[in-house]
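thread from #wetlab-drylab

HS: before we spend reagent money on co-crystallization trials with alpha-D-glucopyranose, can we at least see a predicted complex? here's what I'd submit
DV: go for it
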Amino acid sequence: MRRFLVLFILFFAIASHAQQNDIDARVDRLIAQMTLEEKLGQLTQLVPDQPEFSPALAKGLVGSILNGGDATQINELQHAIVANSRLHIPLLVGHDVIHGYRTIFPIPLAIASSWDPQMAELASHIAAREARATGIRWTFAPMVDVARDARWGRIAEGAGEDPVLGSAMAAAYVRGFQGSNVAADDSLLACAKHFAAYGAAEAGRDYAAAEISERTLREVYLPPFHAAVDAGVGSLMSAFESLNGVPASGNRYLLEDILRKEWKFKGFVVSDWNAVEELMNHGVAATKQDAALLAIKAGVDLDMWGNSYVTLAAAVRDGRLPQSVVDTAVRRVLRAKFQVGLFDDPYTNPNAAAKVTLTAENRAAARRVAQHSIILLKNDGGLLPLPKTGRSIAVIGPLADSKADILGPWNSQGKAEDAVSALDGLRAVIPGISFARGSGILDGTDDEMNAAIALARNADVTIAILGESSEMSGEASSRSSLDLPGHQQKLLEALVATGKPVVLVVMSGRPLAISWAAEHVPSIVQSWFLGTEGGNALTDVLFGDVNPSGKLPVTVPRTTGQVPVYYAHLPSGRPADDKDKYTSKYIDIPLGPLFPFGFGLSYTKFDYADIALSSTSMKSDGRITVSADIRNSGNRDGEEIVQMYIRDLVASVSRPVKELKAFRRVALRAGETKRVEFTITKRELQFWSTTPGGWIAEPGEFKVWIAPDSASGPESKFTLVR
Ligand code: GLC
């Protein structure tokens, strides 16, 4: 058997190598026939409704489109380009398939709350199958930007604040989108974005400059991109923002030195929307042609929307741009077109989509992913789960009956009419359940608030579904306040003032500073935007058919003013201490976040005990294991996300107070105990040294935790010896 396996792997490696050689040969033959204008056309991505599009299409001078429409429309465009262009090169059709195509899954920040890469892989695989059936071959996903500032609207699109969780999710999305064969009819070429450190935008303001150290870049913002490259991602998207004064889309250090020389990335880089021409706004290019020259020389192969690369023909002819730079970019783009099968068959069966779209199987998967994405933040007195009978329930809030908002931002072809709102889900279990909006998301009237309060007074328990609209997160949606928007805080306080128990469900694309609720509301659920099946999944949790297992992928701040607040912070010379004035804290709020990274409750209870190490010292080329007992001491089965953190106590530079290094979902029946073990090697202990530039692990003492979150759990110590 072993011999067979070795032979199979060998055969597979040889076959894929041969296929790559064949593709390279076909690419070279094609390039040898192309004019300069045709080459620059391959480096141009347009939207069909752009004025430049039709003339370019007619001459075969456009290589890629985004948002090309349905299968019929895309087929027409492919027929046009293949028929019209001299060399019959098909279009590479891209689209933002971020968390679903027509069946919409929870937003990526919600999927990250599952801490389950399989959920990301499942969601992206189904999304790929639905999108590919319409002729789309390339998705501008996964978005892998680490985000430590909840004011930034795009925190919704990623996996939160941690590079280890972010890396695991990034690789899973690439596997899910690309599958084992990126040309298959259920695969899409993936695109890790936005390279790099877009999430470090100053003050959480989208598109703002990012100023971070090389060590923070290497340790925090780059790892998920590296994980995506290691997982075989076929493309990356260069970001809008300037990084330490050099715009990412003109940044050769990022795009050439790190991405290609260090990481050996072989795919292609597409700019973000018009980010090439925007180099002029950054003040690093005087003209559109200068911007194009800067971008292509830095390593941006494909210009999205800006149509800047057509200006490079003159630069090649007058010697400012070597033809070889253009050919290298064209080779990368053409190679991808061969790899996704476009030259074998550029067309799509227009009837294929109906068979694979919004199927019962896809809906069931969306519901399952959503169930895993919900976080129980508080449950005093065990108010949840609610009984399905015997108690009257009032549902209040502007998001309760919203079928559009539950899809979240970047919902591609998701349709509100397909969605199950929270109220739909609750009424599927209790048909007569009463509902009143109480207020809008941003506006509201006294009358509707009074009507809601009256409803709550007459009910035994109220479910308040409050938060943000889906447009309040995502791109260009930074908020200067993390409070509940509009009159919703006033509504919540009025509902609590009725004296009846309240369950707060927070529907949002970012963590909200719900300090008052955390103090006064007995049960709080963070639901994010859960997608097409969100109302059913939320109902499954609220009534206890599903035991919530989600944990925070981001820190929840007490106030907006506390931001940025994240768990893996440096210790400070005066670590926060509420007994000592002269320490690093605020005088007007308690210490620490409202809810810590990694936190989430369950309807059962998990206890951590007996942490132990296989050895208290470890050589730099060795390994030790750390383990602990996790016991389900409650009365129902559940799943716990067990986390392993380390701290380097003394090093040549100040190190974070904690760093997540591993995690694992563990299913435990009521009363069951499992011993969970993690392995520690040098890899888990190293940090980025700027002199001479590289990963190093320094001898010394380390703390290690096996924990339910970043703020608790048993700890132990060991020494790394030279
Ligand atoms: C947008 C976004 C990017 C997206 C692209 C195409 O500006 O920044 O994430 O993929 O344009 O829609």
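DV: The first strand starts at residue 44 and ends at 46.
HS: ok that's useful, forwarding to the group
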